[in-house]
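Chapter summary example.
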Amino acid sequence: QVQLVESGGGLAQAGGSLRLSCAASGPTFSRATMGWFRQAPGKEREFVAAISLSGGSSIQADSVKGRFTISRDNAKNTVYLQMNSLKPEDTAVYYCAAKSWAIMTTARSYDYWGQGTQVTVSS
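The structure predicted for these 123 residues follows.
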C-alpha cells in the first residue's frame, strides 16, 4: 500500500513557477513508478510526467516539455514536479500517482492516487 499526499499548489502568475511535492508513506515507494496527472474543469485527467523507480528515466507530456521537471528523492519518499514558465492553460488540479513496474502515461495504469492540489495560473 502507498498513501500519497500532494502539496505546493496555489496561485501563480503566467511566467511564474511552482514546485509541487508528493509525500508517500509505505515501504514500497522506492519500488514504485511515480506520475503526475492533472485535471481541469470539464476535462479528462491528463498525463503530465512520470519517473522510474530509480529516477534514472522520466518522460513528460509534450504540453509541458521544457517547462516542467519531475524528480524524486527515495530517501525522503517524495516526488516533485518543478513547474516553470507557467501558462493559464496549466490551471488544474494536480494529482500524484504510483504504480508498479514500467512508466505508463495512462491514468488507469496507476494503482494509488493522492487527493490532488489546485494550481491556478493567472494571465
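To summarize the output: The mean pLDDT is 95.
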